[in-house]
Automatic annotation (TrEMBL):
It comes from the Bacteria. The lineage of its organism: Bacteria, Bacillati, Actinomycetota, Actinomycetes, Kitasatosporales. Pfam families: HisKA_3. This is histidine kinase. Residues 211-275 form the Signal transduction histidine kinase subgroup 3 dimerisation and phosphoacceptor domain. The chain crosses the membrane at residues 20-41, 47-67, 112-138, 158-182.
Length: 412
């Protein structure tokens, strides 16, 4: 009874109607293979091998038609639209021949199941309409496959109504069963293989790593801007009465750094939202002068020593090195003394050396100075991604030192 209720409800179910249409598409897709199979059966073949020859040629042709990657893409699109599956769209051909052969099997299966559903439902619907029609027309004989059935006039011929209703149930049951089989087999044959799932997982990991990197860059940029703006605002407030010109320069610096931070924010948020983002070159070591001038404008005594041709540093390393220096200087402004900051940047052969030192606050103990924080964690993660090494800690003479050694070769 439960199965009958499911079949009856499936007759009016929109998904089942789409499933029947999907089965009919499979029957239509198999027509070229059917034509080739019929052409392969020569008139001189013995009667006993004609059907086997037709079936072998038919299946082989349908299977070959399913080998192209486009056939798999269309199969996935139709299955998702008409069967209600949720298969991932295959963007590239399968990497292994096993996955290709498995996907190619879908077309013959779709053709055979769809052809059976189309034939049975077509016959049942024809009988469900034809038998009552003959009875209402005054009776007569109806040919049913290999036999004929008399349809008398009047009440004795009312059996055609029962048979018609039964035919409708058979048609609904066949559609339900065929749709269920196709829906069950679609993920098995059209779904991603082990290699494709591994590639998809790797792509998701890369996307997640990229998003984490962007979040770290946004944290560094906004943190630097807030620190610089706070210091400049305090400086402007202090100089407002004594030196209005210096106060205006401090406010101008706040405006410039805030605008740069807004550009970074628009850029990163646009990428995370998968929307077009403003195209703006990311800062590199070529803009080191701009960064150091900004720090010096905050009242910090910063000495810079550059060695080598920084313009020849690979773009990836140059961008990350700029971010490293920006974050390190921001941490220095937050936690260290700004009366004697020394920055050294040296490009030697296949290595890039970054070193930043500053005086520790007088009240800071060695234990407090060596306590790790989120800033150092972020710096260490950047350096490790580039294949380099980071060291940070007190030097023993009352100063704090952060040094990074970055390769300019394969990791770049």
């Amino acid at each position: 009874m439960r199965l009958m209720r499911e079949v009856i409800s499936g007759l009016a179910n929109r998904i089942q109607v789409r499933g029947w249409f999907f089965a009919c598409l499979g029957a239509v897709a198999g027509l070229p293979a059917c034509v080739v199979g019929l052409a392969a059966v020569r008139p001189g073949f013995p009667a006993g091998i004609r059907v086997p020859v037709f079936l072998v040629v038919f299946v082989a042709t349908a299977w070959a038609m399913g080998l192209p990657h486009g056939a798999r893409r269309r199969g996935v699109r139709l299955a998702n639209g008409l069967l209600g599956t949720n298969l991932p769209r295959p963007l590239t051909p399968p990497r292994s021949w096993g996955d290709r052969l498995r996907a190619a099997t879908w077309l013959p299966v779709h053709t055979v199941v769809g052809g059976a559903v189309t034939a049975v439902t077509g016959l049942c619907l024809g009988m469900a309409v034809g038998l009552p029609w003959v009875w209402l027309a005054g009776g007569g004989e109806v040919a049913l496959l290999w036999f004929t059935a008399p349809v008398p006039r009047g009440l004795p011929g009312a059996w055609t109504l029962l048979v018609g209703a039964g035919c409708l149930l058979v048609a609904g049951g066949c559609t339900w069963a065929g749709t269920a089989v196709l829906r069950r087999l679609a993920p098995v044959l059209l779904g991603p293989g082990a290699a494709e799932r591994a590639a998809a997982a790797e792509a998701r990991m890369r996307a997640l790593a990229q998003r984490n990197r962007l979040a770290q860059e946004l944290h560094d940029s906004i943190g630097h801007t807030l620190t610089a703006s706070t210091i400049q605002a305090a400086l402007a407030q202090e100089l407002l009465d004594r030196d209005p010109q210096a106060a205006r320069r401090a406010l101008s610096t706040i405006e410039e750094t805030s605008r740069a931070a807004m550009d970074d924010l628009d850029h990163v948020v646009g990428i995370l939202r998968e929307a077009p983002a403003p195209i703006r070159p990311q800062p590199t070591l070529a803009e080191l002068d701009v960064l150091t001038e900004r720090i010096q404008a905050m009242g910090a005594a910063l000495t810079v020593e550059a060695e080598g041709d920084l313009g020849q540093v690979p773009a990836t390393v140059s961008r990350e090195a700029y971010r490293l220096l920006q974050e390190s200087l921001t941490n220095t402004l937050k936690h260290g003394e700004t009366d004697d900051i020394r920055l050294r940047v040296a490009a030697r052969g296949d290595r890039l050396l970054l070193e930043l030192t500053n005086s520790l606050p007088a009240a800071a103990s060695v234990a407090a100075a060596t306590r790790p924080g989120h800033g150092l964690d972020g710096l260490g993660e950047r350096v490790r991604l580039l294949g380099g090494e980071l060291s940070a800690g007190p030097t023993g003479d009352g100063r704090w030192r952060v040094a990074a050694d970055l390769p300019l070769g394969p990791h770049a």
